[in-house]
Amino acid sequence: MAIQAGRIRVLKDVEPRGDGRYVLYLLQQANRAHENPALELAIEEANRLGLPVLACFGLLDGKNGFPEANARHYAFLLQGLADAASGLKARGIGFCLRKASPARIAIDLAEDAALLVLDRGYLAIQKRWYAEIVEAVDARIVQVEGDVVVPVEVTSGKHEYAARTLRPKLHKHLDDYVAPLTARKVKHAAGRGLPKSEVDIADTAAVLAGMSLDRIVGPVRRFTGGETEARRRLKAYLEGPFANYGSDRNRPEAGAASHMSPYLHFGQISPVEIVRAVRAAKAGGREDKASYVEEVVIRRELAMNHVHYTEGYDDYARAVPEWARKVLAEHADDPRPKTYTETELAEGRTHDVYWNAAQAEMRETGYMHNHLRMYWGKKILEWSPSPEEGFARTLRLNNRYFLDGRDANSFTNVAWVYGLHDRPWARRKIFGTVRYQSENSLRKFDAKAYLKTVEALCRAEAENEA
């Protein structure tokens, strides 16, 4: 099956080098050895040129580490890279990992490459890497989208107002972009002469121990990284809890969530693969499948649209729509029923036991159900001294503790709390006409059962640390 033309962008249109030793693939966003269109294109080009494929990864460390990433995030990343390295080796593809920026390793290794293939991400830091690479590399550079179902620009050429404006545009292309991706056979396996990794990724614990990073927020037991684990989880989910997704998806205690978000964030599973699997699932009816596709495609790609077309998506003044900032400013001096410091919020020391439980789940296990994430964020706005400080606190806590923090969804969901992709509602204190969420929303599920679930999860994490 051909890779859709809409996924492919030529960033430097020159002929491949005749003296190149390999086709280089910067495996940075799509951290997987299968269902990866950028990798498959690299294999196609290598087969055509009679060369092996070398995949590389730049591991940011120390002062140059990925912004806000800590031991929790890196443990999951390294587990995924070890799995990807194993999968690449089985396919006859070389792998080189170095402690360097993604741009630096790509620029260095491209000196001996016939051409360079990039995958794609939409965050500002990723765009800076690509720009640096294009500026410094003289070889042919091709970028292939594998992080969303439909490439952002194919769906829309502008910032979309809401899901309702994006949905019809995306559905117009959806079927064309969920076609199966055939694994190409590698004709020229990687040999001993290719550059080797400076780090033995097989021992992820040792690699993590040797890194200079924030260890206060540690690895979690609840999730193990890697495409193998992602597929195992997806298969088990579709054979079990998915049957009630449509009715139970907004009930945190019901176990109807797939927990695919960390794996999507780190590129350890393709969203296209997930959509195909959901569509083919024997369990679940039409409503269940439509609801799931809405989340993994429409909502997720609305977030990609937001960060791609918004310069300063992590800044309150630029990420939050003008109408919302105006009305929140009008109510900035309204008395708060409660106010808490950021430390009190992080430690879950508020008067709201259910909010505290949601915070504990996030802090200890790296995950929080989407229904509670909305309530969690709205309460931080309500309990903060100003909307600007509330926005900053929410983003810092989100990015620090969630495994899928620092993601397009993270930046978009936090801005949604403050009015992004929403409309004005009835006016009230503190929020003005920005949507409010009260404790009454907790009545939609068994909140006491959720408390017990969180207690068990946190106990399991504590036993793991012991």
Question: How much beta, percentage-wise?
Answer: 5-15%
Q: Would you report the number of β strands?
A: 6
Residue share in helices?
40-55%
* Class from secondary-structure proportions: alpha/beta
Q: Could you state the CATH homologous superfamily of the largest domain?
A: DNA Cyclobutane Dipyrimidine Photolyase, subunit A, domain 3
Q: How much is the average pLDDT?
A: 96
Radius of gyration: 22 Å
- How many domains, as an integer? 3
H and E order: EEHEHEHEHEHHHHHHHHHHHHHHHH
Task: Describe the sheet with the most strands.
Answer: 6 strands, mixed
The CATH architecture of the largest domain: Orthogonal Bundle
How is the largest sheet built, in terms of strand order?
1-6-5-2-3-4
Q: Which CATH C-level class of the largest domain is it?
A: Mainly Alpha
Identify the overall geometry: globular
Unreliable residue runs: none
Distance between the termini: 49 Å
The tally of helices reads 20
CATH topology of the largest domain: DNA Cyclobutane Dipyrimidine Photolyase, subunit A, domain 3
EC number: 4.1.99.3
Protein name: Deoxyribodipyrimidine photo-lyase
InterPro entries: Crypto/Photolyase_FAD-like_sf, Crypto/Photolyase_N_sf, DNA_photolyase_N, Photolyase_Class-2, Rossmann-like_a/b/a_fold
Organism: Methylobacterium goesingense
Could you explain the architecture of this structure?
The chain has 466 residues and is an alpha/beta fold. 48% of the residues lie in helices and 7% in strands. It has 3 domains: 1-147, Rossmann fold, CATH 3.40.50.620; 227-309, Serine Threonine Protein Phosphatase 5, Tetratricopeptide repeat (Alpha Horseshoe); 316-465, DNA Cyclobutane Dipyrimidine Photolyase, subunit A, domain 3 (Orthogonal Bundle), CATH 1.10.579.10. The protein contains 20 helices and 6 strands. It has a 6-stranded mixed β-sheet with strand order 1-6-5-2-3-4. Strand 3, helix 2 (71-90) and strand 4 form a beta-alpha-beta unit. Helix 11 (271-280) packs antiparallel against helix 12 and helix 12 (286-309) crosses helix 19 (408-417). One of its GO terms (molecular function) is deoxyribodipyrimidine photo-lyase activity. InterPro entries: Crypto/Photolyase_FAD-like_sf, Crypto/Photolyase_N_sf, DNA_photolyase_N, Photolyase_Class-2, Rossmann-like_a/b/a_fold. Pfam families: DNA_photolyase. Keywords: Lyase.
